[in-house]
Design goal:
alpha/beta; Rossmann fold; Alpha-Beta Plaits; 7-stranded mixed β-sheet; 24% helix; 32% strand
Amino acid sequence: MIRLAIRCKAENAELALAQLIELAPTGIEEIRDGDIVEYAVYGPPGEVPTLPDLQVAVGDDLVEVRTTEVADDWQERWKDFHGSMLITPSAGASEPTIFLRPSWDDAEPAAGAVEIVLDPGQAFGTGSHPTTRLCLRLLLDIAAEGGNEGELIDLGCGSGVLAIAAGKLGWGPLRAYDFDHLAVTATEENAVRNDVSVAAFQSDVRDPEGDGIPALAPTVFANIMRPQLLDVAAQIPADHGMREVVLSGLLDEEADEISAAYAAHGLRETGRISEGGWTGLRLSAV
C-alpha cells in the first residue's frame, strides 16, 4: 500500500486538496499542525503514483510531497481511528440529535438519537471530517425549526451520510450526486443499510456544458470545495426554488466570498459555524 502525502501552509490547502482528490481511491486523510496542513491518499502501486520526496513551488510557498509504503492491512487498521459520535444542533436546541456509527463499531446509540450506520467502502466520508459534522449540525438546526420536509438534494454526497440523515429526519424525496462512481455506490449501499430511499447519480457540477448542476430542490446541501461551490452559484437559475441551502468544504477565509456569491441569488446567510479551520454556511431564501 502506498501513502502519498502533501504538506503545505493552510492558505494553500485548497490547491493541494484539489490535486489529491482525483487520486482518492480510499478517501483523503487530513492532519493539521498549527498553520501546516497535510493531506494524504492511500492506494496500491499503480493506482497511487510513487514519487520521490520533493518540494514544489506554489506561489510564494514550497509544498512538500512525500511517498511512503504502509502495511498491507492498512485498510482494516484505519478503522481503529473512526468510531461512533453524537452530533447535536449548533443553534442551542437539545434535539434532534444524530448518533453516527461506523458499521464495525457496536456502540449503543444515545437515547433518543437518530442512528445512522455507515460504511464508506472506497468512497470519501466516515462522517468524521469537520465539514461533514458542520453540515449535520446545520441539518439538525433546520429540523429543530420544523423545516424537515420536502425534497432535498446532496451535491458531493461521498458515502451518503447527509442524504441518509435527512431521510431519517423526515425529508423526502432525496437525491444525491457525486462525480466519483465509488461514492454513488457507497451512497446506494448505505441508504439500503439504513432503510432510507435515496436516488444517487454520478454527475459533475463543474461542467455547465456537460452535466452541470441538477434540477434543484427546496433544500440543498453541498459539501464540496470553493471552486465547485462557485461553479454551482454561476449556474443557479432565476427560478431556482431553493428555500434552505447548506454549504461546506470551505476554509474559514473563503466563507465571505461564497456567502456573497449565493446572496446574489436571494439566499441570505442565516447561520455560520466553524471547526478546525473549516466553515459551514446556512443560507435561506429572502
